[in-house]
């Protein structure tokens, strides 16, 4: 008597099936895009504490660092979401190009905005900026910082090594001086200009993405379109404005 072996479907089979379809891929691009937008807002809110002062920003940075394994878990999840967003967007773009191998003779006649026709391009530029941002503020390999004592430069070192002494419950301690790191980072004109350009392109990408995600989920309606557009405008303006405010204020010595 023979027994039949039942093959149990993989727990991730639904995800593979979803990514194989165009509609499913669009849903996942929209969902991951919203998650990334939430991260950008939270990241910006934390960084804006530079306007409050050294204590606020350094305390916030230390609290993030002390998350330990949870921090690395969050970073891994964010990386997975980011890669999924990029790879699925590239696959959708390839499918679109394969379906229309001959380009329109005059692209200006196509009823689409520049942002919608160049989402992949702006997305890849943002990816390049993220890599630069990591090299700058996470690995500290973009430029170094001068250590100044009594108005004199006494050393130059990786600005990630800058430390601040503080007291907690009467106990002297030491932590990374993230405030000084951010100030040093944006005192460079080329770096500040690069950040501002990147934020403008992020705004172009973000506005179209936020506006179109409602259409992807079938939530657009002529009664709500004005509200949807204003939501996209305000969210984009908040992110771009907040992120640009930091390098501008720091470079012009307002902080």
Task: Tell me what the structure shows.
The chain is mainly alpha-helical and 255 residues long. It contains nine helices and four strands. It starts with 12 loop residues before the first helix and ends with a helix. The model has no long low-confidence stretch (mean pLDDT 83).
Main attributes of the structure:
3 helical TM bundles of succinate and fumarate reductases; 255 residues; mainly alpha; two-stranded antiparallel ribbon
- Tally of DSSP β-strands: 4
Query: Helix count?
Result: 9
Radius of gyration: 23 Å
Oligomer: single chain
**Beta-strand residue fraction:** 5-15%
* Strand order of the biggest β-sheet: 1-2
Please bin the fraction of helical residues.
55-70%
The termini sit apart by 81 Å
How would a textbook summarize the main sheet?
2 strands, antiparallel
Please state the average pLDDT score: 83
> What would CATH call the homologous superfamily?
Fumarate reductase/succinate dehydrogenase, transmembrane subunit
CATH level-3 fold name: 3 helical TM bundles of succinate and fumarate reductases
Low-pLDDT stretches are none
Kindly summarize this structure in a few lines.
Helices cover 65% and strands 10% of the residues. It has 255 residues and is mostly helical.
Topology of this protein?
Blueprint: H1 13-20, H2 22-47, H3 54-65, H4 69-99, H5 114-117, H6 119-138, E1 144-149, E2 152-158, E3 163-168, E4 171-176, H7 178-186, H8 189-216, H9 225-251
Antiparallel strand pairs: 1-2, 3-4
């Amino acid at each position: 008597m023979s027994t039949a072996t039942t093959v149990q479907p993989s727990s991730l089979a639904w995800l593979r099936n979803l990514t194989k379809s165009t509609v499913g891929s669009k849903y996942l691009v929209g969902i991951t895009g919203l998650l990334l937008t939430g991260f950008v807002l939270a990241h910006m809110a934390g960084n804006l504490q530079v306007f409050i002062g050294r204590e606020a920003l350094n305390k916030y940075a230390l609290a993030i660092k002390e998350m330990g394994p949870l921090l690395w878990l969050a970073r891994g999840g964010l990386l997975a979401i980011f890669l999924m967003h990029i790879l699925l967007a590239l696959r959708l773009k390839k499918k679109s190009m394969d379906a229309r191998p001959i380009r329109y003779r005059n692209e200006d006649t196509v009823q689409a905005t520049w942002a919608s026709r160049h989402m992949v391009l702006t997305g890849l530029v943002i990816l390049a900026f993220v890599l630069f941002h990591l090299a700058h503020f996470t690995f500290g390999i973009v430029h170094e910082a001068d250590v100044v004592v009594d108005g004199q430069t006494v050393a130059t070192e990786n600005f990630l090594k800058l430390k601040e002494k503080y007291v907690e419950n009467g106990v002297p301690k030491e932590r990374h001086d993230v405030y000084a790191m951010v100030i040093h980072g944006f005192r460079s004109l080329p770096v500040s200009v690069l950040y501002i350009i990147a934020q403008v392109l992020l705004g172009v990408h973000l506005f179209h993405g936020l506006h179109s995600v409602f259409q992807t989920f079938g939530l657009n309606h002529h009664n709500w379109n004005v509200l949807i557009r204003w939501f996209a405008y305000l969210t984009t303006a908040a992110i771009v404005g907040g992120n640009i405010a930091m390098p501008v204020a720091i470079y012009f010595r307002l902080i």
